[in-house]
Design a protein that fits this description.
alpha/beta, seven-stranded parallel beta sheet, globular, 13 strands, 387 residues
Length: 387
């Protein structure tokens, strides 16, 4: 029998379950490239339910308790006396989310001698100290591709929100109870004809490029792995060898690259200053890829016309985080990858991973970040947060 500790985000303020807007969601059985959607032996939830919060429990309680396993679910993850820290020392498995990360630091991993598996319910395992996980012989897995399209749709939405000045216009008819058309359109433009680029053309970045093509924009991208020639021709893409080539060439930049030492604080005052005046940045990758205060300065000076994204550091950010009050922003909490549609897939994928691990069967290779248990015989693979 195993102890599974899940760190999930808190329930809705109005209570659980919420009133759902729809009675069903589309069934997605596979992803671009041929990977199938998660295929657990069974699920104990209705797709479209709110599963990622504490009361949702990823739909796992019945499955685990019928096996005789212990299942602890909490949203309390900060401070020396947090539920996470109290329950961690004898946990075999920790489940966490990029949206409400349980930071598995080297200290926490060292304090958990029985910890054998860390699962990300979603995509993005940079809340796990991977070198420590490898030394600890842990397996680290995530539900690859489960919410990649969700994030790409969110990025396109935020691009349009910024360029068309949607939020200030909406505020005029709601909060301000006005009808100030001139004020609403004084910063509104068409996306058509603009140069739009993505930094990182993995699953999410490529999906963003494909969704932007019908807007009659000129598309650019930068990635260390160049896309196949037929894809470049199909989407009429211009490839850039590095971010310093890409940034000055575009009016809109969408960030989808992994966070690593070479990308941390990449968009500082210098690189943002090299962009066209009045450019837009959308960041649904990781907050630390941009310099927090450089973004604020660029918005205040007019170098950037807008900044949007749904990734922050830390998560959740403190009340006085400057991105909460900076001008010309369209920020959201980290929600792009946790739509109710995505939750159905990453909850099912989490169960699939658990079924395999608990039964001693190989975990899907595409889910493995670090194969500490040797079940798949793959060893550690390169980590990516691009989906």
């Amino acid at each position: 029998m195993a102890k599974i500790l899940a760190v999930l985000y808190p329930d809705p303020v109005g209570g659980y379950p919420p009133d759902y807007a729809r009675d069903e969601i589309p069934v997605i059985t596979g992803y671009p490239g041929g990977q199938t959607a998660p295929t657990p032996q069974a699920i104990d939830f209705t797709p479209g339910q709110l599963l990622g919060c504490v009361s949702g429990e990823l739909g796992l309680r019945r499955f685990l308790e019928e096996r005789g396993d212990t299942f602890v679910v909490t949203s309390d993850k900060e401070g020396a006396d947090s539920t996470l820290d109290r329950e961690l020392p004898d946990a075999d498995v920790v489940i966490s989310q990029p949206f409400w990360p349980a930071y598995l630091t080297s200290e926490r991993i060292a304090a958990a001698p029985q910890l054998k598996l860390a699962i990300t319910a979603g995509i993005g395992s940079d809340h796990v100290d991977l070198p420590s996980a490898i030394a600890h012989r842990m397996t680290v897995a995530e539900v690859t591709y489960s919410n990649s399209i969700s994030v790409s749709e969110h990025a396109v939405m935020q691009i349009l929100t910024l360029v068309h000045n949607y939020l200030p216009a909406h505020e005029w008819v709601t909060t301000k109870k006005g009808w100030n058309i001139a004020d609403s359109v004084s910063r509104a433009y068409d996306l058509e004809g603009m140069d739009v680029g993505v930094l990182g053309s993995g699953r999410i970045g490529l999906a963003v490029l494909r969704r932007l093509k019908p807007f009659d924009v000129t598309l650019h991208y930068c990635d260390v792995h160049r896309l196949p020639q037929e894809v470049e021709q199909e989407l009429e893409l211009t490839w850039h060898p590095d971010a310093r080539s890409l940034a000055p060439a575009v009016d809109v930049l969408s960030i989808h690259t992994p966070l690593h030492p070479q990308t941390q604080n990449l968009f500082d005052d210098e690189l943002i200053g090299a962009m066209k005046r009045g450019s837009y940045i959308v960041n649904t990758a990781r907050a630390l890829i941009v310099n927090r205060d450089a973004v604020v300065r660029a918005l205040n000076s007019g170098q950037l016309a807008g900044y949007a994204g749904d990734v922050w550091y830390p998560q959740p950010p403190p009340p006085d985080h400057p991105w909460r009050t900076m001008p010309y922003e369209a920020m959201t909490p980290h929600v792009s990858g946790t739509t109710l549609s995505a939750q159905a897939r990453y909850a099912a994928g989490t169960r699939e991973i658990l079924e395999s691990w608990l039964d001693g069967r190989p975990i899907r290779p595409e889910y493995l970040i670090v194969d500490g248990g040797g079940l798949a015989g793959t060893g550690a693979r390169s980590y990516t947060v691009t989906g």
